Amino acid sequence: YDLGSGVGRAVLHAFLEFGVQRSVGVELASSRHKQAELAWRRLQAAGFEDWAGCVSLVQGDILQEDCREATVIFVSSLCFSEDFMRILALKLASCPDLRAVVSLQRFPDGINGFAVGEDWEGLEMSWMVGKDRDQVRAFVYLAVHGTGTQPPP
After folding, report:
1. What is the pLDDT of residues 15-56, one digit of tens each?
2. I need a surface site. Which of 45, 77, 82, 96 has the fewest CB within 10 A?
3. In this predicted model, what pLDDT tens digit does every residue of 119-128 receive, in sequence order?
4. Nearest partner of 141 among 129, 113, 133, 6, judged by Cα
């Protein structure tokens, strides 16, 4: 899942490169969502029409979207307030199958049921073209209890 998926680059990249069973993007802005849908239609027309059920692009509020089946979530959170990040952390902590969260901003109080993993530095982002990539850092949160956030029985 990509929460705040913009024009769908990460969603489509995950589908193409990593062989995920399902890649989902949620974007609030209708203009960016429409661009993501256009990119997906072009990809399908280029030979991926049989994979239609593998990619879902949703225009909506990430706090309202049901992401309980997510196993990995990416959040391009640079513009989110600390209060929003706290609310999002509560939502993510309730996802039973979630194994990892990658965010471009730290969650102020962490995510319940997750440990802070190793930060990733120097990430390449499309909006950083021609700029110093060392500025982009991601914060990784890993589920503490095996494959999900719930403790084992």
Report:
1. 888 888 899 999 999 999 999 999 999 999 998 878 878 999
2. 45
3. 665 555 555 4
4. 113
Residue 115 Cα distances to 59, 95, 105, 118, 144, angstroms = 30, 15, 15, 10, 6
Of 93, 129, 148, 114, residue with least CA distance to 9 = 129
Q: How far apart are CA 19 and CA 14, in angstroms?
A: 7
Instruction: Return the structure tokens found at 120.
Output: 């990733």
129 C-beta neighbours (distance < 10 Å), count:
8
Q: Which residues pair with 145 in a beta bridge?
A: 148
Q: How far apart are CA 134 and CA 44, in angstroms?
A: 34
Give Dmax (Cα) for the chain: 50
Find the angle CA(31)-CA(82)-CA(109) to the nearest 5 degrees.
130
d(CA 3, CA 119): 19
Instruction: Tell me the pairing of strands 100-103 and 72-75.
Output: parallel
- Number of Cβ atoms within 10 Å of the Cβ of 77: 21
First vs last Cα of the chain: how many Å apart?
Answer: 27
